[in-house]
Amino acid sequence: MKATELLKRQHDEVKAILKLLEKANGQTNALLEKLANNIAAHMVIEQELFYPAVLKVKESLVLEGYEEHAVARFALKRLMKSSPDDHTFKAKVTTLREILEHHMEEEEDELFPRADKELGENSEGLAEEMKALFQQTVKAGYARTIGRGGPAVTSAVAPDVHVG
Ligand SMILES: [Fe+2]
Ligand SMILES: [Fe+2]
After folding, report:
1. Which of 99, 138, 144, 162 has the lowest tally of Cβ within 10 angstroms?
2. Rounded Cα gap, residues 145 and 164, in angstroms
3. Residue whose C-alpha is closest to residue 127's, from 117, 114, 116
4. How far, in whole angstroms, is CA 146 from its chain's centroid?
């Protein structure tokens, strides 16, 4: 499987969980945890492995990706701190969904096609590495990842690489 195909599948999974969450009444804790683990681990594999590998294809897009992750992480943290009984809960889910939909659309439409060309036959090896890091990050739990100093936070600063 290509690296971009793996990421796209993860996007679809996150979209499906968000839909369920918007419809869910009451029983949301397991869904919330699944959502947070999926988003946190997805951001880690992009920031640690995918973005650095494709930084050269369009640096401005990749740098935007890091910034949008920081915004999404902020919205996710606010959601995780709120109670499903709170009258702002649904607004928080919807806001997170809108931020992520915009971000995923940009990745899929603008970054991924260029990334496929750049990565060529290295894409499958990268996908295997990404899969392993994803599983490892989900296992550690989202709190370790998006909390103070966690990998999704520290690596939210784009690497200082200058390209032509
Ligand atoms: Fe992303
Ligand atoms: Fe993504």
Report:
1. 162
2. 33
3. 116
4. 11
Contacts of 155 (CB under 8 A, 6+ apart): 44, 47, 48
Q: Would you give the end-to-end CA distance of the chain in angstroms?
A: 30
68-97 in b/e burial notation, b at 16+ Cβ within 10 A? Answer: bbeebbebbeebbebebeeeebeebbeebb
User: How remote is the CA of residue 101 from the centroid of ligand 1, in Å?
Assistant: 10
Distance from the alpha carbon of residue 62 to the mean position of ligand 2, in angstroms: 11
Report domain extents, the chain. Answer: 3-154
Say if CB 70 and CB 118 are below 8 A apart: no
| Angle separating helix axes 59-81 and 89-106, nearest 10 degrees | 160
Indicate the pTM of the whole model: 0.93
pLDDT, tens digit, 9 for 90 and up, residues 105-134: 999 999 999 999 999 999 999 999 999 999
